[in-house]
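Here is one chain, start to finish.
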Amino acid sequence: MAVTAAGISRWSSLGIVILLALTLGSVVSPVHAADDGFTRFLAAVWPEAQQAGVSRATFDSVTAGLEPDYKLPDLILPGRPATGAPSQAEFVQVPADYLKESSIAGLAAEGRRLMRKNESTLDAIEKRFGVPATIILAIWGRETDYGRYTLPYDAMRVLATQAYVGRRKDQYRNEFIEGLLLLQRGAVSRKNFRASWGGATGLTQFLPSELAKHGVDFDGDGRIDIWSSVPDALASAAQQLVNKGWQPGLRWAYEVRAPENADCTDGVPEVRKPIDKWLREGFLPVRGQKLTAVEREQSASLLQPEGSHGPSFLTTANYFVIKEYNFSDLYVLFVGHLADRMTSPLPFATPWSASTQLRSRDVEAMQRHLTRLGLYKDKIDGKAGMLTRAALGAYQKSAGLKVDCWPSDGVLRAMNAAR
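Its structure:
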């Protein structure tokens, strides 16, 4: 029913007060209260931003109307369960799913096409940085499907939210300020400044601080543009790898067949041996591949992503350089194998097993138990990485279980029964 001006004039002052109270009461919520805290958070960031060189005009322009996105993963919200990061495929999928053959084959075919299309640029990048074209193309393919995937989030909203209620507030506070500086320099427009839920942006997925350290203007237009310039994006990825220790001419890894008596607890970065020693211990390159004398002298560590069940790899220093780009063994395997597939049609020689992935909270429970026993000294994060798998193998040895270094339901039940 419409309310006329005459009708309103007949209302008493008390009625108007009651109406306003009811109206305001209907919109006040804990989220609005939290947003007041967000406003205070932004105000507290301003002095740091100013000291870093952000102008007041830039700060006000970006923060005007900015609201946190409480639907992002990996947040800590009062009164709500921890969200974790369940959507990050590297940590919730088994290798067979993450390294799906159809995905690898399709990306490899597109990578070969792009290699031909961008041959001169890629040759120049490889000559300058010593990083193979296939590696940087594989990073581009994994990160944004060669630019065909549109990043879903407003980067500044993500960075601000993670700095406000994320698990790594200090890191993202700095990233938010670096994002302001990118906008101030005109490196990217606010409209095109899109990101993943973790704040990585551009064709090759850089956090703003990483772009500040490693960005390259390779097309010579006077600005570093990893959002629309393929030369800049690929050269920046190559520069980041070089700055993190990339060694030209060194392979990322060698797939091998492990001997029956292989100890899966050796699958940690600290156990490094010349490849020739691994070979003498019975680790054989797949498909009869012959290694040169120089390759045999290289230092490598053992990687068994599925414990004793699936493929085994001898990983070089460059493996761990790629891991600096994304701290996941499956990510590095994807990038490295995709790079190989651009020049060879051969899939992994050993198939991935049909293993299941335990829920993160179950892996966390394992990590806590292993920590109490003194077998594990890393983060409690629910991710079955190298150190967790090795610690599980050590536990299996001590408990008289089959040693396979894999977080299974059976091992979890044994741990629960022993408490």
